[in-house]
Amino acid sequence: GDSVTQTEGLVTLTEGLPVMLNCTYQTIYSNPFLFWYVQHLNESPRLLLKSFTDNKRTEHQGFHATLHKSSSSFHLQKSSAQLSDSALYYCALSDRYQGGSAKLIFGEGTKLTVSS
Amino acid sequence: GPKVLQIPSHQIIDMGQMVTLNCDPVSNHLYFYWYKQILGQQMEFLVNFYNGKVMEKSKLFKDQFSVERPDGSYFTLKIQPTALEDSAVYFCASSSGTGENTLYFGAGTRLSVL
Fold first, then answer.
1. Tens digit of each residue's pLDDT (9 = 90 or more) over A18-58
2. CA distance B6 to chain A (A)
3. Which of A101, A115, A17 is nearest to B29 (CA)?
């Protein structure tokens, strides 16, 4: 079945350093849709980024990711970490993006901790 | 932005009792979901619901689970009877079903079965 893998359970960084959170996926769908959700402490998970276009960079709030279907990857990056980036980050996969059910398959999540 | 509210935030019950988790989805959304997250593990899909019916459910959605949304009120997840392995955080989500079909999540209900 479909699955999403986030290899790092915990990432600890010093403020100002670059961020890279890994995400790879397996799916039978030829046109998967990939998402990054972020969850701050005691808050709801909320959408950070989404993409369904191969090899096109998508950006939001300083974060960016590029869907690479050749390597089944959708890594999340940011050039300079901020204290406020400390949160749980989930990579997720869907077989559709518009219309109907938006069911997502989630990765295990990566806890990002940024210190000063 | 749009908000999904979940009530209560934490529920403690004895094994074998019934529990109902409540979700107030985004007002114009048509699709509703429950996800389960055991401590330290990923969020896993339980069920989605549309037009008064379960559309799809996972193997985690045991016979003891049921969902409903009577007359546009809360979207509920009922577990009867509860088991120890039901202890988890349950996230409700909703989506419009049209356009950019983003999933909006609630903050979760932490269920502790003793």
1. 999 999 999 988 888 999 999 998 888 899 999 989 999 99
2. 10
3. A101
Total count of domains within chain B = 1
pLDDT for A5:
96
Cα of A68 to nearest chain B Cα, Å? 21
SS (H, E, C) chain A: CCEEECCCCEEEEECCCCEEECCEEECCCCCCEEEEEEECCCCCCEEEEEECCCCCEEEECCEEEECECCCCECCEEECCCCHHHCEEEEEEEECCCCCCCCCCEECCCEEEEEEC
Containing structural domain, residue B43: 5-113
Question: What is the domain-level CATH number for residue B93?
Answer: 2.60.40.10
Q: What is the CATH number of domain A3-115?
A: 2.60.40.10
